[in-house]
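Researcher: We're reviewing a set of sequences before deciding which ones to prioritize for further study. For each one, I'd like a predicted 3D structure that I can look through quickly. This is DUF2924 domain-containing protein. If possible, include the structure in token form so it fits the rest of the review sheet.
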Amino acid sequence: GTRLIREFNGVEHCVTVRGDDFEYLGKPYRSLSAIARAITGTNWNGWTFFGLKNQRGRS
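Model: Here's the predicted structure for DUF2924 domain-containing protein, in token form for your review sheet.
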């Protein structure tokens, strides 16, 4: 699947987009927000954290 890469606090984080979920560090996640929370320890909109546009084409 597609790979999303985000640098946070000097560390590069790579997420693989799969059919029904996302994979980060070998574990499945249901949302990008859950992955962003695992990386930062705080709540984030996953789309915003990974620099993606929302479904309406806005960043």
